[in-house]
Amino acid sequence: MSGRELLAASDIDFDPETATIEDESVLDLLEPSVREWWVDEFGEYVPGNGGFFTPPQREAVPLIHERKNALICAPTGSGKTLASFTAIINELFRRDRERAGGLENSVYCLYVSPLKSLANDIHRNLEVPLEGISERMADRGVDTEIRHAIRHGDTDSAERQKMLKETPHILNTTPETLAILLNSPKFKKKLETVEYVVVDEIHSLAENKRGTHLSVSLERLETLAESSPTRIGCSATVEPLSTMAEFLVGEENGETREYEIVDTRFVRDFDIRLECPTDDLIDTPREVVQARFYDRLHELVDSHTNTLVFTNTRSGAERVLQNLRERFPDSFDESNSGCHHGSLSKDRRHEIERQLKAGELDVVTTSTSLELGIDMPHIDLVVQVGSPKSVASLLQRIGRAGHRLGQTVQGRVIALDRDELVECAVMLKKAEEGFVDRVFVPENAYDVASQHVYGMAINGVKREADVKATLRRAYPYRNFSDVEWERLMAYLTADYAGLEEKNVYAKIWRDTNDAPDGEHHYEEFDVGEPLIGKRGRLARVIYMTNIGTIPDSFTCDVYVRGSKEWVGNLDESYLDTLEKGDVFVLGGSNFEFSYRRGSKVYVDPTSARPTVPSWFSERLPLSYDLGREILTFQDELLSRLASGGRPGVRTWLREFPMDENSVRAVARTFDEQVRYGGPEAVSTDSRLAVEEVLDREEYRRNFYVHSNYGRKFNDGLSRLVAARCARRSNANVKVAVADNGFSISMPLNRKVDVADAIRSLDPETVREELRRALTGTDLLKRYFRINATRSLMILKRYKGYEKTAAQQQVSSEMLLSFARDLDSFAVIEETYREIVEDKLNVAGIAEVLRGVQTGDVSVTHRELYSPSPRAFGLATLMASDVVLAEDESAVLREFHARVLDELGEDDEIERLRSDVTGTDD
């Protein structure tokens, strides 16, 4: 039967004579048994779809059927993963039916996922179509078997051995395991028949080195496979699509392979709204804000079936759940609520996932661990507490609700901080308009290249040109120059005097092929051909037990300097942010960071205010693109404030998806900001505002730079500005960084023009200046260890012995001073590249500074009596997650009172009265 005949003969309620079935041609591509299963499983005619396939399925299935590379970009719950598998399953069943002996005992389709849980979920979901279609084939008298299995780090040796004897036709795996399989002497032969590769959640891989690693693995698979595998990428809402597609398909002979893009990112209806418990987040008592927040959260959970609550930290997820249970004991307990994050045990996470899938939990709180992965069909509401920091992250999280096409995606964002209120207002508006933040792909990473070149050499002697070509076919290495290649070769061959004395040995040999009578002649290669081969008898074992890109981490013991008093632990990632003199809170007390040795940190007790908040290392940074949109928003708001006053701003803001409390809070903040500091105290897309405040009590001169480009940008720019200010003032300069700007602090008797320091920065030299500013920092030490371990310069595992991350750090610090003196040493170069490009956004800094040079961006300076309203967050560095924050509300109220005092009490009373009555509208 054709697709229309099959539908007409079924029990489906539609009129085949009048209905327009856009996907009839898609059904007709499928094998009869596959077609029947599909109609039985998804046979509800959805008029909005114009048929029985979702938009991504309708577009993708024919492309994959025609063996075209495709990137499928669609929101969560729109069926994109099944769209990837449908044509593949159809082809495998057809071939199994037609071939006398059935399919070979080999892999035909690889499914690569960033998460083990996602691979597990897809594995379970594949069972439904494979079993259903097999049953229908059996009814026709055709015996078929399409095997599928999952293999990742948790797969035991017995199961791995079983796969060699009875190989899955569809293999679900992770990027790390794929790299190991490519070097497995026996199993790699099973990959020669691979015809399809599905990369799920590709956007979450492309932006980090796991994706870089996978991209080279795909090119190695390309070389290994009998035919070029069709590549299918699945992505949530992402930008730019062309970059993601090019990352997926790689290059051939210097040209990007052909691909198609299935762009159905906006096929779901969104009901998203920003809420705030009050229109005054400063003078409303904190306990009142919290009570209103939890009352509202309880109301939202109570009015929905299953609710997922995202917070910005793991401890925040735990605290929200704890408070819900304590405040509403009759509504929430362990039987109907739970918490899910990466620090919990695997068994506990799996149980929460199982309960979510079954719809057994009324509410689950989480941080980032449930952004990707498992299908949660019963969730009908997502609540985001605080800013998720990017439109892409917002859509990914909110998209967990209504996990089916046709269901409205319902999400509520609750802001508990004035700076995040502005962020979220812009974020939700841009999400409605279809804006998405860009993904930035790391390029030319030496550490990942080291692993793969070593892996290729272990598999056998290779032409150097072939190895180089394989690497360059991967999108992140498309511009890998000959100079960079020689630098990589110098490291891998240990071509540095004294390197092997440090127990860093050559990984490969590099030589030309000898003549037939020579000692090293390989018949399959021409005489004189440059060749590469492995060094060392344990090369394969070293490779298999040490590869991967996810760094090990550890906690550092913190001691009071000059004594043996232990005061607690710090996660080492938190130390990335600390410079000598920085103040942080640990165990309820304030400490000033002095120095670190290996896994020990030494501090001094202090009464000074903290400069680095406790959540700093855990929170996602604001995306650079969203930061620019916020600056554009602020420029428009200033124009409306100038023409229509606060009422005009409120009227405009009511066009945004936000409640009245949020509207009034944002309007009041900017009205006070402009009346206190003038329009030039607000940064826009054409202005960078600097304000200077003298703190005579602390004897400090504080500068607040309103650079709303995100924490990565501000971390980088603040290091450049601080270095310049330290030189000009000949004083120790303290820096504190946030998403909406940074502060520079120095003794009161020193004075520096910070605005001029910014203007004097040369965009063409900031990369080198950042490199100099990183010298001696703990950030450099940590990333050198990570890259030395990734580059197999330091071995995590060797001859049964395993080095902890803390032991790796000790080894790396001994190597760092030696390696720093080597000429263009690959591991050092990669360490600087990763920090400067990936962690400090040097490209964004250079872009803004070019605007300063050309005059498109002005840098203004204002001296103020007290921090301006938009600098309150920078001045206090109060944790923006009020659920977790220490109570610094008294400091905020003091700042606000100073501002109101400067503005004039009578004037402010009148404005507050009009806010209450609405008479100025």
Fraction of residues in helices? 40-55%
End-to-end separation in angstroms reads 66 Å
Record the strand order, biggest sheet.
3-4-2-5-6-1-9
Report the biggest beta sheet as strand number plus sense, adding barrel if it closes.
Answer: 7 strands, parallel
Q: State the helix count.
A: 33
Global structural class: alpha/beta
Approximately how much beta-strand content do the residues carry? 15-25%
Number of strands: 30
Query: Which parts are unreliable, with pLDDT below 50 for 5 consecutive residues or more?
Result: 16-20, 878-886, 906-910, 916-921
- Name the overall outline: globular
Report Rg.
Answer: 30 Å
Average pLDDT works out at: 88
Notes on the protein architecture:
By secondary structure, the protein is α/β, with parallel strands linked by helices. The strands form 7 sheets. Strands 3-4-2-5-6-1-9 form a 7-stranded parallel beta sheet, sandwiched between helices. It has a 6-stranded parallel beta sheet with strand order 10-15-14-11-13-12, with helices on both faces. It has a 5-stranded mixed beta sheet with strand order 20-19-23-22-21. Helix 8 runs parallel beside helix 10. The protein starts with a helix and ends with a helix.
